[in-house]
């Protein structure tokens, strides 16, 4: 009996050592598996590259889009995480209206400008919706430079217009989650006034989301946001009709101008 008990104890200890070894081996493999998981994740949500380096994360996706029907790339949505999340939360809406998401989280207007030709112009959409400025104002990469941001937005719009693409410039949505003070809030309003004026001077379409998103004290309505910066599904639901109206206006304006010029 003692010998049998001793043998049982030895076998139990061996099993425990094997199990412990397997667990340790699995744990040692975790960093590699985690890296592989991150590598499989969408490149649109990775940490942005520096301000002076282009991020061509959509290179493969652009080839796939160009191989498909033109109706599936009617409008390209250029932007940061607010644009990226819109597609993520409302994929059926994007597909139904031929919207192509080209948003990358954390990007500034400078980074968008560097990838604008391959991610927008090369896709030859009917129109482009540009929403830029939130991360500039939040000084995510460097201190906010209003003149630089305006030049970046104007350059993107000019590239699209030169390529025969109708331009829709979105207002920078209300955002209070960065903890910025009154100077940044005033800078945001000033940037939106300038964007609206740029549209008026160049026959672009201004897409203003403030009437549906603005809450008390010019803040983003709490029911439409998860973090006071990014809209949630309910927020995108009220933004959708504003976007579609802007697209219709941009395409109609182009059609009317074409008729006038041909007449």
Number of strands: 5
Strand order of the largest sheet: 2-1-3-4-5
Strand content: 5-15%
Kindly report how far apart the N and C termini lie: 108 Å
Low-confidence runs: 13-41
Tally of helical segments: 11
Whole-number mean pLDDT = 83
Helices and strands, in N-to-C order? HHEHHEHHEHHEHEHH
Secondary structure: helix percent: 55-70%
Using the alpha-carbon principal axes, give the shape: globular
Task: Look at the helices and sheets and give the structural class.
Answer: alpha/beta
Largest sheet: 5 strands, parallel
Q: Whole-number radius of gyration?
A: 25 Å
Give a brief description.
With 263 residues, the chain is α/β, with parallel strands linked by helices.
Write the layout of secondary structure elements.
Elements: H1 2-40, H2 59-67, E1 75-79, H3 81-89, H4 91-96, E2 99-103, H5 109-114, H6 116-119, E3 127-130, H7 134-137, H8 146-162, E4 166-170, H9 182-202, E5 205-207, H10 210-213, H11 233-262
Parallel strand pairs: 1-2, 1-3, 3-4, 4-5
Helix pairs in contact: 8-9
Characteristics:
263 residues, alpha/beta, five-stranded parallel β-sheet, 11 helices, 5 strands, 57% helix, globular
Q: How would you describe this protein?
A:
By secondary structure, the protein is an alpha/beta fold. It contains 11 helices and 5 strands; from the N terminus they run ααβααβααβααβαβαα. It has a 5-stranded parallel beta sheet with strand order 2-1-3-4-5, sandwiched between helices. It is globular, with a radius of gyration of 25 Å.
